[in-house]
Amino acid sequence: MDTNLDLIRSARFRAEREADWRRLEALVTQAETRGLAQMSFKEARDLAGLYRRATTALSIAREISLDRALLRYLEALTARAYLSVYAPQERVGGLLRRFLTASGPQAMRRSWHFILIGFLCMGLGSLAGYLLYFENTDWYHVFMPPSLAGGRGPDSSAEQLLRSIYDSDPSSSGLAAFATFLFSHNTRIAIFVFGLGAFLCFPAILLTFYNGLTLGAFFALHVDRGIAWDLAGWLSIHGVTELSAICIACGGGVQLGAAVLFPGQNSRSEALRLAGADAVKLAIIAAIMLVAAALLEGFARQLVQDPVTRLITGWGIGAMWLAWFVFAGRARS
Questions:
Q1: What DSSP element (H or E) covers 96?
Q2: How far apart are the first and last CA of the chain?
Q3: How far apart (Å, rounded) are the C-alpha atoms in residues 140 and 133?
Q4: Residues 227, 233 contacting (CB under 8 angstroms)
Q5: Model confidence over 150-174: pLDDT tens digits?
Q6: pLDDT by residue (tens digit) across 100-127?
Q7: Phi/psi at 263 (nearest 5 deg)?
């Protein structure tokens, strides 16, 4: 008998309010798909009012122990309505625009000393690789994996190297294959230096330094053949962006590692959480730069053959990145 009464009471409770719930469900779906900004004043007012009625109905339903199916429906509906009414209403485009115009560059400026460590690691590695090559050319094979060398080494002549740099058909050039492999290699390095940075900074620093060793040895090979200018142009057009992305990713990793090593007044987990807010933004910026480097490597490097133009293009784009990091997101007076 009690079960029948509960069913009757539940059916009556639902029948008295179901029209409002259906209306609320339609408004919530509209807010989720189109956004509150596209709703009329009446629709937005009804959404807020019906949400309050639904929460009151949920409280009553819990008090009088109505059937579980009705409770689950009301709980799901009020949760969706709460997010529609109170959650920040910002689309992906707005988040991306805010990141590019403010929060991303601001994170770069706050983390400049960590990013500087990344550039120092890359620079010192390049210098070490360059000097060690001229001390003994066998170091080239130590630093340069065969898959990256592509058959180029101390035995290669200047003519062979130049043919690769200025091949009339870049798609068939061995150096074009090298560039593609180098990009994928550098992308993996960027991911590793960021992800491993939390392990007390050392892996991130070591990997960035190793990447510099490879670059320094490869550049020394071309200096030794008297064609450093040609390689500088070839590397600049996409390497300025690509290698900077690795250094920025290293800076983010070092920032995480420094939070673990030097948490200050916070616990290590709390310090890591706080540092992660900017470190993740550095990783996103590095990813954006790697995508840009891929486009430059795939199109601009093949279309532009003059070394001076390549240098101007590569370093000009680097200057644009720097201007974005320095000036974007500053408060206007």
A1: helix 92-98
A2: 74
A3: 6
A4: no
A5: 678 888 888 888 877 776 454 444 5
A6: 999 999 999 999 999 999 999 999 999 9
A7: -75, -15
pLDDT band at 10 (very low <50, low <70, confident <90, very high): confident
Residues 6+ positions from 328 with CB-CB distance below 8 Å: 100, 101, 102, 104, 105
Q: Round to whole Å and give the CA distance between 141 and 252.
A: 30
C-beta of residue 194 within 8 angstroms of C-beta of residue 253? yes
Is-contact 302 170, C-beta < 8 A?
yes
- Which amino acid would we find at residue 37? A
Residue type, 193: V
Better pLDDT: 169 or 259: 259
Task: Give the Cα separation of 211 and 239 in Å (integer).
Answer: 12
pTM attached to this predicted model: 0.71
Smallest CA-to-CA distance from 217 within 143, 286, 310, 106 is with: 143
Burial class of residue 19 (count of CB atoms within 10 Å of its CB; 0-12, 13-18, 19+): exposed
Least confident range of 18-32, 103-117, 124-138: 18-32
